[in-house]
Design brief:
- By secondary structure, the chain is an alpha/beta fold.
- The protein has two domains: 4-254, Spore Coat Polysaccharide Biosynthesis Protein SpsA, Chain A, CATH 3.90.550.10; 279-420, Hexapeptide repeat proteins (UDP N-Acetylglucosamine Acyltransferase, domain 1, 3 Solenoid), CATH 2.160.10.10.
- The protein has a seven-stranded mixed sheet with strand order 5-4-1-6-11-8-12.
- A hairpin with a 5-residue loop joins strand 9 (162-166) and strand 10 (172-177).
- The radius of gyration is 22 Å and the shape is globular.
């Protein structure tokens, strides 16, 4: 029997998600009403029969570590194998992870304990459903030393990804890391299968190279190709989303509210598991109007909710209108408030008669590259005072309270941050 181990790279900052990742690692960002991003990769592993998993953490890992725990929701609380958290450490080769390849390099001893034939390298911050067995079978059948999962993207988006150029047999002939002039529209998903002995050889070489960035896409894979090694591209045709921007994160959540969503969260044969608090069933009172929305357990809905994703324990008051928005766990929206095209983080308190996401569009003054797409973002534990009107493309920072508001009129493109 072939022996496979999975390593999940979960140390990313996710700067393009702004205040959503200011205090938590990107893989710990909530998604889809009750999950966190890491849940999709972990669930894909166990659904694929991979039960030896290392999770490599670095940036603000506390919520992520607490969420994974001993891995019980994923049936990973095992005496042999299961899930192991692998933070950076001092001693030997230790220190902060300098790149994706360096993170694996520093944990070679952990992998060697399992003596695997193959190592599957995964990202912990993408939303997708994939049976990794299909990719491993493809890898073996082609006699590959490394296989990279890829998907077709539009040529206008290609510069955001690592781009693969392959021949008709799917053998990779060139790899471009986020090129300004892409030669192909075949984008790497950051999902790799390696023969372990082969990968170990290149990690050791890369670890000695002082000029390297110690990154798979930038350094290790180009070196493998330069040496003429057998690298193959595995074309994936299923659902996969990179939710690395405010707009893509919002869109990926909202598309779950469609009558036939592109990602099926209800497939009994491919379940997504999570660590979640036990709450009572959701309640919608006689005044509630809910249309094409996800309402999670513990919610109390008295107003209107349309095309929105409402996480656990959210309270929506009388006369409220929540439209095309994401409201995360335990947030409270008091009576007669309106929220449109917004992302409301966890434990936010929105007082009565507040309007969010209204008015004309304007570029965000804090960071127009991060906060865009007419979407207003409210950071966790913020408190918005009664009667406040917040425009489009605004950002309300983490922990903002009523004293931080100099005015109750927050024009489109503006921001309010907590004053230390």
């Amino acid at each position: 029997m072939r022996k496979v181990i999975a390593l999940i790279l979960a140390g990313g900052h996710g700067r393009r998600l702004g205040v959503l990742t200011e205090k938590i690692a990107k893989p710990a960002v909530p998604f889809g009403g009750k999950y966190r991003l890491i849940d999709f990769t972990l669930s894909n592993c166990v659904n694929s029969g991979i039960y030896n998993i290392g999770v490599l953490t670095q940036y603000r890992p506390h919520i992520l570590n607490n969420h994974i725990g001993i891995g019980k929701p994923w049936d990973l609380d095992r005496k042999k194998g299961g899930v192991t958290i692998l933070p950076p450490f001092l001693g030997g080769m230790g220190g902060w992870y300098k790149g994706t390849a360096d993170a694996v390099f520093q944990n070679m001893e952990f992998v060697d304990r399992f003596n695997p034939d193959f190592v599957v390298i995964l990202s912990g911050d993408h939303v997708y459903a994939m049976d990794y067995n299909d990719m491993v079978d493809f890898h073996i059948s082609n006699g590959a030393e490394a296989t990279i999962a890829c998907i077709e993207v539009s040529i206008t988006e290609a510069s955001r990804f690592g781009i693969i150029v392959s021949d008709p047999s799917s053998k990779i002939v060139e790899f471009q890391e986020k090129p300004s002039k892409p030669k192909s529209s075949l984008a790497s998903l950051g999902i790799y299968v390696f023969n372990w002995k082969f990968l170990k050889e290149y990690l050791e070489r890369d670890g000695k190279d002082k000029t390297s960035n110690h990154d798979f896409g930038h350094d290790v894979i180009p070196k493998m190709l330069k040496d003429g090694r057998n690298l193959y591209s595995y074309r994936f045709s299923g659902y996969w989303r990179d939710v690395g921007t405010i707009k893509s994160y919002w869109e990926s959540n909202i598309e779950l509210t469609k009558p036939v969503p592109p990602l099926n969260l209800y497939d009994a044969n491919w379940r997504f598991y999570t660590q979640t608090e036990e709450m009572s069933p959701a309640y919608c009172d006689p005044n509630a109007v809910v249309i094409s929305s996800i309402i999670s357990e513990g919610c109390e809905i008295s107003g209107g909710v349309e095309n929105s994703v409402i996480f656990q324990g959210v309270k929506v008051g009388n006369g409220c209108v929540i439209r095309n928005s994401i409201v995360m766990t335990n947030s409270v929206i008091e009576d007669n408030s309106t929220i449109e095209n917004a992302i409301i983080a966890e434990n936010v308190f929105i007082s009565k008669n507040v309007k969010i996401g209204v008015g004309e569009n304007a570029p965000n003054q804090l960071d127009s590259n991060v906060y865009a797409g007419d979407i207003t973002v409210v950071g966790m534990e913020a408190k918005i005072p009664q009667g406040t009107v917040v425009g489009k493309n605004c950002v309300i920072g983490i922990g903002v309270n009523e004293s931080d508001f100099e005015s109750l009129e927050i024009p489109s493109g503006s921001f309010v941050l907590h004053k230390e």
